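pasting for the record
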Amino acid sequence: MKNKSILNACGFSASARFTGKLGLLLASAASAGLLHSSPAMAQADQPGAANASGLEEIVVTARRREERLQSVPLAVTAFTQADVEAKRITSVADLTRNVPSVSLFVAASDANAPFANSLALRGLPGSVIYFADVPLGSSTANPSGGTLHGLSQGFYYDLDNLEVINGPQGTLFGKNSIGGLISISPKRPTNDFEGYFKATGGNYGDREFEGAVNIPIVQDKLLVRIAGQSQQRDGYTENLENGKDLDNRNYFAWRVGVTLRPTDDFENYFLYDGYWQDTNGSSGILRYANLDFKFASIPLPGIANPVPLTLGNGLPLSALTNPATAGATYLQLLQTAASGGHPSLSFFPTVSSVLAEQQRLGARVQIGMSGQGIGKDYFEGYADVATWNINDDLLVKNIAAIRIFKQLANIDFDGTGLPIEDYGVPGNSTQWGSNYGQYTEEFQLQGKAFGEKLSWVAGGYLEYDAPVGDSENGNVALGTATYSDSNYVSRSRAAFAHGVYDLGDFVDGLKFTAGYRYTWDDISEGQRATTGVNQVIRNPAGAPTNCSSLLGADQNCYTSVEAHFSSYGWNVGLDEQLTPSTLIYVRSGNAYRPGGFNLTVPQQYQSFQPEHVTDVEVGEKSDFDLMGVHGRINAAYYHTEWKSIQVQVPIAYNLPSGQPQSNYAYLNAASATLDGIELQGNIIPIKGLEIDPHLSYEYAHYNEFPAGISDSPSPPLVVLPRLSWAISATYHLPIDESLGDLAVTASYAWNGHQYETNRKGEPAAIVPSYDRVDLNVSWNNFLQQPVDLSFFMTNALDKTYEVGAVTNYGQIGTSTLIYSEPRMFGFSVKYRFGGPDEEPAAAPAAYTPPPAVAPAPAVAKSYLVFFDFNKSDLTPQAQTVVDQAARNVGTEKVTRLTVTGHTDTVGSDAYNMRLSRRRAESVAAQLEKDGIPSSGIAIIAKGKRDLLVPTADGVREPQNRRVQIVYSDGAGS
């Protein structure tokens, strides 16, 4: 019963069966045809030259090898560089409007100084971002999601592709991830001298420059690509205290890539990249203040009950501690108590007036900032990717990298300009607050076995994180500064294996996937901290005088902890290619996130354990052509069980001095269930119009949650909107081709409300829903010149909506909000130079039956011979074309035939170069059989980075699955 579908028996069906081999499935019934043919030899649209639905083919590396997006049984969203520019994707935040189930909450600052941004895929934090195959880690095991290390901008230019993969990962990728990953692949060097320069100007003084140059120093052997990007833009929030604009941009990014191919089977790619940012910091607008918030109580003589110390209600505490006013203040307290009132003392009695003034000023003016606003980042990376194709069935790959992260941020958490709760060392504008290095090594073996039925990858991963220099952190709480120097060191080791087996001998199109991983994590963290003025960090010569607020600290105010965590992970699935254009799949995976430390609480609470995720996903990917409407619909349903969740809970304890204290600490205190649906579409209803909708619906709830923390025993999860959707439409105006390609794109996105915190009584717990409209107009190949013009407008309706908050209402009595960018618009000019030499290429004409009696047709001068996916053998249709080409040689007095083999973009460079040569040799061998002498045949092989047929983004691979035969020195050739 080979042709009976196992998945059909589970409730899936298809209107048509496809009984071909694996190569025919993926090639969509590739065939052969003529480039310039006579009516007798003309053919209809070539199945091998375009997708059956007429939609673009997209190649992704979601499974660590290049594959067609529609053949990958994972929820993947992919963007080309053209997509990135058209959708104005310049930061991680922009992905929330373009990808299902991606959410971001800015917990302490905006994109310009990413201090504690929480990125979540399918509601799960701890998602990993890869750049050039290298994971970008975090300096701390931060359950809130960790910093994004400058990925807000400066990374989204000159790309080969950008991919977002939802669901647990680890059996294929070096670093473990419970929610998914984002992969950013910079454009690698090519064999052509080419490049571009782009300049952008816009409102708020926006000035952007971007460019790249590709230099083939030694053709196909030594290739170099240099690229860079910069932006300077004024801020959109005024700091009333010093007149500086917050939320400005000022950065420069650069990269240099070098590809070395000493032999056809070995390639080494080295990439150096860097990023520098120096801004005035971001805004935080005071929204709520609890004047009665009580920090502590103090007993006073003559007053029966201890007098509470509040945020802003009561007589000034400073008046009681000032000898000049202490007597009068104490007398007022006695009089209030004697008259039956409730005397209180206030740390900051002006908070109420500050709150009223801030509400009057609105969202674009911050009333004050404690100290100087700073947002500085310096990142650099060195990555080396070596690939050795031992043979067609075995590949060795090694990825070694070093990344350096340096950050400095001063943030006014309370937004009042008062020293209530501030992050950063007062007066420090030079010493890094975070200063560490990440060293990674990943070794892979990739191969095929059992007649190419099994594709597998196995490898090991090592990561080491450690400081690379001094760092200095500080906090100011209620006017008292605490300084610390943290020393975080981690080592992660993992072994993984993953395989895909083709079960086509039993059920056509059916494949089985399985993978396993085991991870070992060793983490240690130390912190030296003191309070007051005379302390070790700020004054190394001075002796520490106040360690009373530190638990477990030695005489040098040093606290240290260490722990070991380990766990397995796995992935298993079935997928079936029901038809060449329809894939269905079911998969399940398991992953873990290591534990971490709480250094400022008693020893029994100082560490928390790992959390674990297990999910099940069912999905489909289909292309269709219905009554002339081309379309693509990808859908997935997932069910996730999340256990041992690291939840922040309140802890009460006594300091060494005996003073009572309370704080928050992460503990494994919850479990949750998440169910969701994701939909993505691509529809071409009429020529020139493309509509791209997407939607995600996620229902998530805690199964158990610590009592006394939330207003609900089963609160909703944070950073997870239940519903979000978006739709964009691009229309290419029907203007004459000589004028270029003029297109208009409009996008609408709606994000549902999401919770920022589950803490009880927090007025800023919910970030409200918002919608947004973006516009883009592009005029590519302006007047048939290598010039692209564009106009963009983001947040076109100029809406002001929340993107984050600092919810300290239950800790210090204030909550501040972070708001979106206002309307931004600008114009861009892009000039392209160089590039591949154009070769004759034209779409095949539609088939027209010849009349019964007709003159001899004109002889074609160029022929295209199409191949099945990943194959070099001539199909019967291809052999017919080669035979016709050979028969026509004599009539044209041809002295030479040029046979050029072209390959796909799926596979390594070396493999594809060999494949293209084998294809050309197959054609040449047939020509020789047809009587063409070998001396009259020239063979040229083209690799994946030398595609013959250019398109809008230059990577439409199916058209390159062929060999081209061109007559030379013939009449009229």
